[in-house]
């Protein structure tokens, strides 16, 4: 707000019209309103306050009239003020309620208060905004952001009312100053910054944990000791760069060694192939040489065998003839035995000389016997083969029974292997869940332990803040007491500054017959400054301790939010359980390939057992068919 022009007519001590060009005074940016006591300094400020709010501050606002007593009869009291506020040029013309003589008859009548609020347009013309008292009050209050009470407490403090402002409650002063300076946006910014700090702290903690995990993995892989967490800001980046350079160098060396090893392996494989070819040729040569020596050693035996073979070939017809002669002799013997048997069976004894008539029948019988001899030999062969066929049938049946047992057991083995694989897969699938739960629990336990430490630190911090606040209150009261004592002894302070022949700043007299003497509790400006300095120091200390307490409370709230209901002492067993679950899940992950292979082998074995059963059953059918065919052939023969 900036004042431009003030015009006062019949208001307060000003009986005539008085105009003050405040723009001329404000060229330097600051001006001082000064003058002897009773010169009207306060009345000028009252006129400004009246033009804005229609009332004057302090006890003067309770006066029954504001019109100047020395003004000419019939002159209307009036205050006109031009000001700029919020980028707008306004003009306020107010008239207080006053008593005037009646136009007809005798006596007086009351003229009501009035107001005219106008705004200057860009073309220089004035546009009336309001002529109503209440509406004008609302517009001015909205533009200035203060009520009359707040304006008189801050911008235009009445004489003797400064102590009332200082003695007001901190909440009231806070509300007043907040509304005056519109610090709500700063509180919004503070809340936004607090939330941002909380989010950044949480994100920083998460990223710090990620960095810690990465550093742990790098140190474990590189088999080196990582830097201490307290020195990460100065050493972690250099350490990581060093590790990366070392890893790149190791990779380059390993790559070179791999290329050299591949080249060496290629040369070795070529040499191995050549050696194998040479070795194979040498073995073939050795076998050929051994065979040649063996053949040379058996040359005489071979010659003897060739001679024996020639003699055997020449003896084959003789052997065959001898075999036929033997067979014929045996047949004749059997026929003679048959003849004797038949003779014994004759109902009538036939002498030998009477067999001539039966010769033909006997020759026919002999022919039938001769025809039956091949079938007899075939029967003998079949009778010799029947035990072998029976044994083959038995073996085929045993094989079928074994295959049936294998096929019956195969589903159980497949089921056990499948259940084992499913259990391992379920346990392995739970590994991320267990690891996440373990990491969350460890984080909660760490947050809970840290929260305990912060909570232990918070109690003394609150006690220190309370002590600092009590000290601030004490020093504030001390300052008020010193200030009140100085105000009460202001007469003696003014008397101490009087010089002989000098004018009194209060009454203007050159004569000082009885100067006021300072009392035993009188203070001066130096004591007030010392009390103010001590109060400022106490407020600064209180503010720092309050900030520390707020930081601890915010940190404690975040830690409690992260910890939840976790009890570090009771969470030890759960941590051990999750660690064991993670170990079991990792073992299950390691056993998964073997379990998968076992299941595949079991399924393949089941398929092979089924195929083997089919083959065994086919073999059994074939053996039974051969045995049945042999039995029928024996019966036929």
Report on the structure:
With 637 residues, the chain is of the alpha+beta class. Among the domains are: 2-144, Rossmann fold (3-Layer(aba) Sandwich), CATH 3.40.50.300; 229-297. Helix content is 70%, strand content 8%. The protein has helices at residues 22-25, 41-53, 133-144, 148-154, 162-167, 170-181, 184-222, 232-297, 299-345, 359-429, 431-488, 490-496, 525-563, 571-636; strands at residues 2-11, 14-21, 78-85, 88-95, 98-101, 108-111, 114-120, 126-130. Helix 11 (431-488) runs antiparallel to helix 13 (525-563). It is rod-shaped.
Using brief descriptors, characterize the structure shown:
rod-shaped; alpha+beta; 637 residues; 8 strands
In short:
By secondary structure, the chain is α+β, with helices and mostly antiparallel strands.
CATH superfamily of the domain at 2-144: P-loop containing nucleotide triphosphate hydrolases
Level-1 CATH class name of the domain at 2-144: Alpha Beta
Summarize the amount of helix as a percent range: over 70%
Strand content: 5-15%
Global morphology: rod-shaped
**Largest sheet descriptor:** 6 strands, antiparallel
Calculate the mean pLDDT score and round it.
Answer: 79
User: Low-confidence parts, pLDDT < 50 over ≥5 residues?
Assistant: none
Radius of gyration, CA atoms, in whole angstroms: 65 Å
